[in-house]
Design goal:
The chain is mostly helical and 490 residues long. Helices cover 64% and strands 1% of the residues. It has helices at residues 5-21, 23-30, 35-38, 41-61, 71-89, 91-95, 102-113, 129-152, 154-157, 180-204, 209-220, 233-237, 243-254, 258-267, 270-274, 277-301, 305-320, 335-344, 360-378, 395-420, 426-437, 445-448, 459-473, 477-480; strands spanning 387-388, 391-392.
């Protein structure tokens, strides 16, 4: 059996810490101008007390000295911590003024912590400030959590080819921070500074301080939760400032490897960022897709070139990075745009970033595998070596990545069929499955598209989508390995 005490200790401590952070939306509601909004503070205060009491109690009951956490414990800890945090993060939604069912509350919390951005809430413009702030905070927490997981957990667990990034971690010959705690703290500091810079830029562009703070958190986290039903389109209609270009820039920054930012800051090695093949490939793909959509939009709508560029850059960046903001209902741009945005939602950004999806490096490894196979077919006696960032790609990386592709799309297909079983139309079922697995946010079509939300879906479909969000965020194998009977045997 797996030793559970260290797992319960860590999960309890995380839940207790989550409860402490609920003091922030509690204060926001107490300071609200509207007396109706001030009533929502009790939901956060009560939920915070429950989290601290429960999490603290579990941590205290399992307190002890543990030398290390093994690989099996790592798999279980990763899944258990995310599930526990989502379950408790949903409490203020369930107890708050909006009277959300626990199903809706769990869906919203899962969408927040996994930085998916799908929502079941309408009337965001009039929602209590604490409620809006908590949604944004969940995405911000989820973003930094996924960065740390990508550098400290997944490479060690060898999930989906992530072992290729072990050279970026603190425990190698290239280490430039002392230990895991310092590494995580340094990444979190960079993340917080980028969020602060984003906030200042949005505020300077004319966005109110409260809205700027919320959007800064969800932009750098590539989460996509907004304080308005019209998403970022609300702020574009309210003024001429190019807020969309600022947000697009920070979505791109959030999709780059934070470990390389650390190398640039601590060592001044700018070449580590500019010379990284994953970064270059991601920017090339983004530029190419933006150009393709620019040509389509400019030709179809007969608008000026700069407006077409803004529409194309923002919406392509929002979808490919998995942020999910919208400035317009791009799903009504015609059949080409519909298929285009559906396909690019699976791509994602760089590994070690806040973005989601398949990740760019897996496409690079898959292309390298295809080229290697073609060369060996053409020259059976030749010796060829595939490389990534000038380093040979080992066979276990090829196997991990190609297995990940298979599991990814098999899960997507399965979820699509299951959602269709709840009576959803084909477009809604397929795009809902895609947006959940890829952690993107809005789906396609009149029901779950950028102009709608997921409130009308049956409860069973929402639970299935919540499972899909968690699967996509934890890279599938982290969860699937727990279903193996051998995992639980000594």
């Amino acid at each position: 059996m797996v030793e559970l005490r260290p797992i319960l200790l860590v999960v309890g401590a995380l839940v207790a810490a989550l409860g402490v952070t609920m003091a922030i939306p509690t204060i926001a509601d107490l300071l609200a101008d509207d007396p109706i909004d001030r009533k929502d503070w009790a939901a956060f205060a009560t939920s915070g007390f429950v989290c601290v009491l429960t999490g603290g109690g579990v941590a205290a009951a399992n307190w002890g000295r543990f030398s290390s956490i093994g690989v099996r414990q790592g798999f279980l800890l990763t899944t258990a911590s995310w599930l526990a945090l989502v379950a408790f993060a949903a409490l203020p939604f369930n107890l708050g003024a909006l009277d959300m069912t626990y199903t809706d509350a769990f869906f919203e919390a899962m969408s927040g912590l996994t930085t998916t951005g799908s929502t079941v809430v309408s009337g965001l413009d009039a929602a209590p400030p604490g409620f809006l702030l908590w949604r944004s905070m969940l995405q911000w927490f989820g973003g930094v959590g996924i960065i740390i997981m990508a550098f400290a957990v997944l490479p060690a667990l060898r999930v989906g080819g992530m072992q290729i990034f072990r050279s970026e971690a603190w425990d190698t010959s290239e280490k430039f921070v002392a230990n895991a705690a310092q590494y995580s703290a340094s990444l979190t500091t960079i993340y917080a500074v980028l969020t602060a810079v984003c906030f200042m830029c949005l505020w300077a562009m004319g966005m109110g301080a409260f809205d700027a703070a919320n959007h800064a958190m969800t932009t750098v986290a590539t989460g996509g939760f907004s304080t308005k039903d019209a998403s970022l389109g609300y702020f574009l209609s309210a003024g001429d400032a190019p807020i969309d270009l600022v947000v697009a820039a920070f979505m791109i920054v959030g999709s780059l490897p934070f470990g390389l930012f650390l190398a640039v800051i601590l060592r001044g090695e700018v070449s580590r960022l500019t010379g990284d093949s994953q970064v270059r490939f991601f920017l090339m793909v983004l530029a190419g897709l933006t150009l393709l959509m620019l040509i389509y939009v400019y030709d179809r709508f007969n608008i000026d070139l700069f407006t077409a560029f803004r529409l194309s850059l923002f919406n392509v960046t929002s979808i490919i990075t998995g942020t999910g903001y919208a400035t317009t209902a791009y799903d009504v741009w015609g059949g080409f745009a519909l298929g285009f945005f559906f396909c690019i939602m699976f791509i994602g950004g760089c590994a070690g970033s806040t973005s989601c999806g398949l990740k760019i490096f897996r496409f690079q490894v898959a292309l390298a595998a295809a080229r290697l196979y073609a060369k060996r077919l053409a020259h059976p006696h030749g010796v060829f070596v595939a490389r990534y960032n000038q380093r040979p790609i080992k066979d276990d990386v090829f196997i991990s990545v190609l297995s990940f592709f298979f599991v990814y799309f098999a899960s997507f297909a399965t979820l699509s069929v299951l959602l269709a079983g709840f009576g959803l139309d084909t477009l809604t079922a397929i795009s809902s499955a895609g947006t959940a697995i890829a952690n993107v946010g809005p789906g396609l079509g009149p029901v779950v598209g950028p102009s709608g939300n997921f409130a009308s879906l049956p409860d069973g479909a929402k639970w299935l989508m919540s499972a899909g969000m968690l699967l996509g965020r934890l890279e599938f194998f982290t969860l699937f390995v727990l279903l193996s009977p051998g995992f639980w045997r000594r």
